[in-house]
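[Discussion] Sanity-checking designs against the backbone

I'm trying to build intuition for which residues belong where. Below is a structure token string of 138 positions. I'd appreciate it if someone posts a full sequence so I can compare it with mine line by line.
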């Protein structure tokens, strides 16, 4: 997935499509991060896909994501995770997710309300074949 972020940054659509097809081969669905950073590209590859956009209260969302965001940025985490093949790329992936999201919606992640609001607006602006929007209130 880190390679897909790099391809997206470099603008290599052919390479990005090939990487995404490889990453999602055998799956019938995806959710949350990081696939949401690739909505337009995934819809180009899978034009008949159904997209469900959930809209949450921005403050409650920020509270739920804070522990993850805080702990994936620990300086020692990459060294601790390196011996674990499935987890060693998590810190790099989280950095790419944050960078891509801020670039896509041009929001500052210090302020969750505008960040989530801008992301919802960006998501709705994507050209969806099949979009279902719903609220999520846990």
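Best answer:
Here's mine. Compare freely.
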């Amino acid at each position: 997935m880190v390679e897909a972020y790099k391809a997206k940054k470099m603008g290599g659509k052919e390479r990005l499509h090939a990487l995404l097809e490889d990453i999602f081969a055998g799956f019938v669905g995806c959710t949350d991060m990081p696939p949401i950073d690739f909505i337009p590209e995934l819809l180009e590859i899978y034009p008949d896909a159904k997209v469900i956009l959930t809209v949450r209260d921005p403050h409650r969302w920020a509270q739920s994501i804070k522990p993850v965001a805080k702990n994936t940025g620990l300086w020692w985490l990459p060294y601790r995770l390196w011996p674990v093949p499935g987890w060693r790329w998590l810190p790099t992936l989280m950095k790419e997710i944050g960078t891509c999201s801020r670039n896509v919606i041009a929001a500052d992640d210090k302020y969750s309300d505008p960040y989530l609001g801008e992301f919802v607006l960006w998501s709705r602006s994507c050209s969806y074949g099949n979009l279902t929007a719903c609220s999520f209130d846990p």
